[in-house]
Specification:
The protein has about 775 residues and is of the alpha/beta class. It is built from 27 helices and 26 strands. Strands 17-16-14-12-11-10-25-26 form an eight-stranded mixed sheet. A seven-stranded mixed sheet has the order 5-6-3-2-1-4-7. A seven-stranded mixed sheet has the order 18-19-20-21-22-23-24. Helix 1 packs parallel to helix 12 and helix 10 packs antiparallel against helix 11. Keywords: Cell membrane, Membrane, Transmembrane, Transmembrane helix.
Length: about 775
């Protein structure tokens, strides 16, 4: 029955997913292995399979029903213990407060003065506090394929955020004596020690390797590790726990402890280190496995099957915390561990470099379904880079930061001297990593996999490892390898077989960004990229990772759609909320040509942007009245500008499009004078669907303009609670009187309209129930 353990894990996972997320496919996923067991007439395995299915279903139902907040949302003061934080990013500080009933509340504190920084830092884990503020729901995903923060924190027993206006709204009265909070306090102090003592190039990777904390890691560096398939090296996992245990075990033996006593010390310390390292699923799995094998060895019994133990550990973790199923670290940790265990035959190599190559290939191959499902792309460089970076991190960096961390407490002068070599080595490695990250030719971007294709790809990968473990003969690997290649090719080809086109108004805050995908992927156009005005701030207020709609919204959406090249990037005019995200596009997506409003006397920032585009070798086409083109059954015509307008809103590119046998008009930020000129030049122009000018401002969308166009639906892109009051009530009333259906990003997030060559097929919204917090964009 041991060989069927993997199907028991499958059964438990399917039961959890069906209860938490629904979907009839989950029932099918659970039943399919049952038919296999019936075919093999394994009565004991069938009984256990059904038992696991029932138990995990009941457990998931119980957990789901238990997730009910004890707060009404009307409370203005809450009390509890700081469990995590503070995490400061500029003027924003975040904490996690745990109430006495174990419910957690996310705390957001906006600092008003630089002098408040040390006060906010004093509210460390274990502080018993009373906090005054306003409760609101955590934000849900406002763009398609985006990270759903509300769902994520719900899985942490968190349902509310509280906004505290100043440090005066947080009152703390002592520290908790709970050992768990004490350990978390030590973890916080350790991270703070790294932040203050270590140099900038080293502090991020040191905090990640020692304490599982990535807040100190530079955003670009973390992106490079993620895109190149090396992010697992920054997570405290089996590799790190194994190395730390080996180093400590050797040290204990050197100071005279017996083997038995050294093992007991490891067993006692592992749970403490698990908490100090953040208690992520990968850490729990690694520490649990090491502890299990030490205990089993102490019993004096024969060696146990590690794959069987791994499956039991997965079942145990899922039963205790069903939401681990949706944790990327849990998925990758168990999948990669299982793949290496299933490949034991081939990994018995005398040549260490050959074995290392096999380990790298197997680990990347095993994680492929999870990586593509969550990140939409896979870099084939990861196989080679893992060969270099795994020993680099495990042999040089990890031992180095451990020694440096200890030395930082002993002698400041010695630390300053010892840190230099490792700092230079790590800095050079990260420069090389950044260079490799720019080699897009080695990256497969297929878009977000459906659950069906993810399951098919996962099955093919599992079959690959089963055959590899059973025979080791490469000819039998041809079928699963073809299944993997076929699935990836089919995923890449899907858009070119789709007779539907899509117009997506992305939620980029107070800005514009529209993606037009024509049927059969005949062409992809992007109108504007969003952007954030750069308001003056003091140095201490500036965010480490400022919001960039190009990098944070537009590029991820394009990758999720499998779009690697834009046929046209249309930048309507020279306001930053329309072109500010362009640099991120230039770095991550191929662009065949840029259309920019015809005219002269560009603003300084406009000229700098166009110069950057030109240096990239991308053609810049002046978009003026009369420019037109066709793509399939769709046609496009530029109605404005004529080139005489001054730089600014009135020079906006106005684009008429025929999509799905429907008239569309994208108006940029033109005002009422521009609308009047447009009607004068094109008195017969119509627009069934209008992109309302200037984010729904009262200076655009005049009643005469709306009436002449015959608008049936209007798209308004505006930031939630923006300081300009967009969209204006007057504009909304004008559209309502015209009988137009209004879709707003500030109310319901991104909007996607589906069409075929003959008609509009439907409209969907990313966040139809709203629930977004006010954020300036």
């Amino acid at each position: 029955m041991k060989k069927d353990t993997v199907w028991f894990v499958w059964s438990g996972a399917a039961a959890v997913h069906f209860v938490v997320s629904g979907g009839i496919w989950a029932v099918g996923a659970a039943v399919c292995p049952l038919f296999l067991l019936l075919f093999r007439k394994s009565a004991a395995s069938i009984a256990v399979f059904i038992l696991v299915l029932m138990l995990f279903s009941l457990r998931a139902v119980w957990v789901e029903n238990a997730h009910v907040s004890s707060l009404s949302g009307e409370e203005t003061v809450i009390q509890g213990t700081i469990e995590d934080g503070p995490h400061r990013d500029g003027s924003l500080v975040r904490y996690t407060l745990q109430k006495q009933d174990s419910e957690r509340v996310q705390i957001r504190l906006m600092l008003q003065e630089k002098t408040e920084i040390p006060i906010s830092a004093s509210y460390a884990p274990g502080s018993i506090c009373s906090i005054r503020g306003a409760l609101s729901y955590p934000s849900t995903a406002s763009n398609f394929h985006a990270f759903d923060y509300r769902r994520y924190v719900k899985q942490q027993h968190t349902y509310w955020e509280m906004e505290a206006a100043s440090v005066e709204d947080i009152r703390c009265s002592g520290m908790s004596r709970n050992p768990l909070y004490m350990l978390k306090g030590w973890r916080y102090e350790g991270v703070q020690r790294i932040d203050t003592a270590f140099p900038e190039p080293l502090k991020g990777i040191a905090a990640a390797l020692l304490f599982g904390e990535r807040d100190l890691l530079e955003a670009d560096t973390e992106t490079d590790y993620q895109s190149l398939g090396l992010i697992h090296l920054l997570a405290v996992s089996g590799l790190h726990v194994g190395l730390l245990c080996a180093m400590l075990y050797f040290l204990l033996l050197c100071i005279g402890l017996t083997k038995e006593k050294a093992e007991w010390v490891l067993l006692i310390l592992l749970p403490f280190y698990t908490i100090l390292a953040g208690a992520a699923p990968s850490v729990l799995r690694a520490a649990g496995m090491v502890s299990a094998f030490i205990i089993w060895d102490k019993t004096g019994r024969k060696s146990m099957d590690p794959f069987f133990v791994l499956c039991l550990a997965a079942l145990l973790f899922l039963f205790i915390h069903p939401y681990y199923l949706y944790h990327i670290g849990f998925q990758l940790s168990f999948l990669i561990s299982a793949s290496l265990l299933l490949s034991r035959n081939i990994l018995h190599q005398k040549n260490r470099w050959k074995m290392a190559f096999y380990v790298s290939v197997i680990a990347q191959f095993a994680g492929l379904p999870v990586i593509l499902f969550h990140f939409y792309e896979f870099s084939f460089l990861s196989i080679v880079l893992n060969l270099v970076f795994v020993p680099f991190i495990s042999v040089i960096v990890l031992p180095g930061v451990i020694v440096l961390f200890a030395v930082s407490f002993l002698n400041a002068a010695l630390f300053s001297l010892a840190v230099v070599p490792l700092q230079e080595i790590v800095s050079f490695a990260h420069v090389m990593l950044s260079a490799a990250g720019s080699w897009n030719a080695f990256t497969y971007t297929g878009g977000k996999l459906s659950l069906v294709l993810t399951g098919l790809l996962g099955t093919a990968v599992y079959l690959f490892f089963i055959r590899l473990e059973q025979t080791g003969r490469y000819r039998r690997l041809l079928l699963p390898a073809l299944l993997v290649a076929g699935t990836l090719t089919f995923q890449k080809a899907l858009p070119y077989m789709d007779n539907r086109g899509y117009v997506t108004m992305l939620d980029v805050g107070q800005g514009d960004s529209f993606v037009i995908e024509l049927p059969y992927r005949r062409a992809v156009y992007l109108i504007d990229t969003g952007g954030v005005p750069d308001f003056p701030k003091e140095e201490w207020e500036e965010r480490e990772e400022p919001y960039d709609p190009g990098e944070d919204v537009v590029v991820p959406f394009l990758k999720a759609e499998g779009i690697t090249t834009l046929d046209k990037l249309i930048l309507t005019h020279g306001d930053i909320d329309h072109y500010g995200g362009t640099p991120a596009l230039l770095e991550n997506v191929g662009i065949k040509e840029v259309l920019y409003g015809k005219g002269g006397n560009f603003k300084e920032a406009e000229a700098a942007l166009l110069d950057t585009v030109w240096k990239k070798g991308i053609p810049i086409v002046p978009a003026g009245r009369g420019l037109a083109w066709h793509a399939g059954s769709s046609s496009f015509q530029v109605l404005a500008p004529d080139g005489d307008e001054p730089a600014g809103n009135e020079r906006s590119v106005v684009l008429r499009a025929d999509l799905g046998n429907t008239n569309w008009l994208f108006t940029g930020d033109i005002g009422r004078s521009g609308e009047e000129e447009l009607l004068s030049e094109f008195p017969d122009v119509k627009a069934d669907i209008l992109k309302a000018g200037h984010h729904g401002s009262r200076t655009s969308s005049s009643p005469a303009f709306i009436e002449q166009l015959g608008v049936k639906a209007a798209l308004i892109s505006a930031g939630r609670c923006n300081r300009f009051g967009h969209p204006h009530e007057e504009t909304l009333e004008t559209l309502e009187k015209a009988g137009a259906q209004v879709y707003r990003t500030d109310a319901a997030g991104a909007v996607q309209i589906t069409f075929t060559e003959d008609r509009i097929r439907g409209v969907r919204q990313a966040a139809p129930e709203g629930g977004q917090n006010c954020e300036e964009g």
